[in-house]
Amino acid sequence: MTLIKSSALLLSLFFSSVATAADDATQKLQQFVDNVQTFSAHFEQMVIDTEGNLLEEAEGEFKLERPGKFRWDYQQPYPQEIVADGERIWFYDVDLEQVTVKSQQEALADTPATLLSGEVVPADKYHIQNLPSDDGRLWVELTPKESDSNFQAVTLVFDGDTLAQMIMRDSFDQRTRLVFSEVEENPTFEKNLFSFTPPAGVDVVGDSQ
């Protein structure tokens, strides 16, 4: 599995000034969890190693419907689809003509994606703190309370009330940065947007039933 694909599993979303209080950052995060049921954005994704070197980059479209449904449609550098229907996650590599399917509960356990489920109160599982900022944006960091988590921290960057960036630091100190644009909160989606049917003729790996 590529770094980009692995990061997509771990990064499924949330939602000023230098003087903004920490309580405001916590409230903004909770406001997203409470009020945003659907979300749509264009994203640019970068994977950066511990030395600051760019390892991979990609871009595409992200859509979310809580609880538990999302899709990443990668357009560059290679077309890929990652679709979570609430029970399973489907990975479709267009060039390889291969679909891999996994249990969503197992694949997303103990990852930042649990913050999107609507069943987890962020303050219950994460330490939340406001970070210093000199760019007029609000930076808030979430670190897991459990010591055996598979990531170290998630940083969210808000521009006003809009999520502008999300940065995850994994257990190897590698960073994955998502930059969002064309953001829409609570859009109406087509009924079958988060359903996935493997195209005819592709190999399917995993339990699709």
Tell me what you see in this structure.
With 209 residues, this protein is mainly beta. Helix content is 15%, strand content 45%. It is built from four helices and twelve strands. It has helices at residues 3-10, 22-35, 104-108, 122-125, and strands spanning 38-48, 54-65, 69-76, 80-85, 88-93, 98-103, 126-131, 138-144, 151-159, 162-170, 175-185, 203-205. A twelve-stranded mixed sheet has the order 7-8-9-10-11-1-2-3-4-5-6-12. β4 (80-85) and β5 form a beta hairpin. The longest helix is centred in the N-terminal third of the chain and has 14 residues, at 22-35. It is globular and about 50 Å long.
From the N-terminal CA to the C-terminal CA, the straight-line distance is 22 Å
Q: If helices are DSSP runs of H or I spanning 4 or more residues, what is the number of helices?
A: 4
Approximate shape: globular
Question: What's the helical proportion of residues?
Answer: 10-25%
Q: Strand share of the residues? A: 35-45%
Residue-averaged pLDDT: 80
Overall radius of gyration: 17 Å
Unreliable residue runs: 13-22
Strand order, main sheet: write it out. 7-8-9-10-11-1-2-3-4-5-6-12
Q: Output the helix-strand order.
A: HHEEEEEEHHEEEEEE
**Given the helix and strand composition, which structural class is it?**
mainly beta
Task: Sketch the major β-sheet.
Answer: 12 strands, mixed
